[in-house]
Amino acid sequence: QDSWRDHDNQEIVPGAAVVTPHGTICLRLPHRVRVDLTIDRAVRIINFKNNIVLSLNESGSSAALLHPNGRIYQYGSRVEILAHDVQGNNKYAKMWYKGVSFTSDQCALVYLVDAAGTRTTTDSFSDLSQDLSLSVYYNESRHGAPYIQEAKTILDESQYWLSDEGIENWIINNVRVSQTPDGLVRVARNSNKYLMRTSPTNGTASLTTPFLHCTASLGQTSHLFVRRGERRMHFDCTSFIVRNAGHSAGFDEKNQLKVY
Hints:
The chain has 2 helices and 24 strands. The chain is mainly beta. The chain has one domain. The protein is elongated and about 55 Å long.
């Protein structure tokens, strides 16, 4: 499986869609963005300029966002979060049926924010250091050499048009992909029920599904945000706050626990 850092096949013209040896479809766009699709409509977007990857599995039940500010991995009703701290004291959170549990590298305790408030608990967090986007993308989808022909048929039936505003549009296997002249890429599936977007100009990314909504950006508004139901996590690269059922807690800029 290809490493997402490997901007391979540089000779392919931006805007060209090809079938890969993996039996998947690869759409290489201007501004160093690539959109990969399986024949089962799993999606993986790679923004090489900002080291951002978004991934959605074929059923929509699992998604991942990899961003310089952190990583988000959602599977079923759970969301796991890693927030990258510039001082090296990374923060971790998990949204699950009990509430939101969280901790940090330098914190010996794990806290849980539930309907009653904030308390210590025992909990473990998944290792998000691997490239989760590949397993999210490939796991439930048919892929490999036997599906190359089917991928070619899908590609032959795809549509492309350029709007008056200069927005390029593709519909490939009922997945809509668009890119504005400044590079913003949007991918929509199931009548906009699943939306993914990233902009190479400002390092933003967002992912919206029936299971979660998350955003991230670089620059002046640098942040990582996740919402699932009434559970939230917001990280502005200094303070880290989780919310659940009207209760909030987290770590302030001095890495001290704060209960709001």
